Amino acid sequence: MSVSDRDRTFMSRVGGYKSESHAEEQARHLALPLDERLRRSSELYLAGREAGASSARDDDPSPFYDRARALGLCA
Questions:
Q1: Do 73 and 37 belong together in one domain?
Q2: Alpha carbon 44 to its chain's center
Q3: pLDDT by residue for the chain (75 residues), tens digit each?
Q4: What's the pLDDT at 56?
Q5: What angle do CA 36, 57, 65 make, to 5 degrees?
Q6: What is the pLDDT of residue 47?
Q7: Which among 13, 43, 51, 59 counts the fewest CB atoms within 10 Å?
Q8: Helix axes 62-70, 34-50, angle to 10 degrees
Q9: Which range marks the domain in which residue 15 is found?
Q10: 3-40: b or e for each residue (b if 16 or more CB lie within 10 Å)?
């Protein structure tokens, strides 16, 4: 099954809109204070972990958040 130029053009436009919306969301996120960004990040991690994600992962970020709290960067 081949893809038409029309389909390519359409998907390219969709990709452009997604890139723009991601850039806008990133700018809003980076405008937040560091402690708020860390708090939100930690909440997302905990929500994902509670949703059944494997707890036996090599890339567990818990030490990162523990260190940030110890340094007073977030609550």
A1: yes
A2: 9
A3: 788 999 999 999 999 999 999 999 999 999 999 999 999 999 988 888 776 655 556 778 888 888 888 988 887
A4: 59
A5: 25
A6: 86
A7: 59
A8: 150
A9: 1-31
A10: eeeeeeeeeeeeeeeeeeeeeeeeeeeeeeeeeeebbe
| In contact, 68 and 38? CB cutoff 8 Å | yes
| Residue 32 vs residues 3, 6, 27, 28, 41: alpha-carbon distances, Å | 42, 40, 9, 7, 12
Report the alpha-carbon distance of residue 50 to residue 67 in Å, rounded.
21
Those residues whose C-beta lies under 8 Å from the C-beta of residue 68, and which sit 6 or more positions away, are 38, 74
- How many angstroms from the chain centroid is the CA of residue 53? 16
Q: How many domains does the chain have?
A: 2
The pLDDT value given to residue 24: 96
- pLDDT at 59 (0 to 100): 76
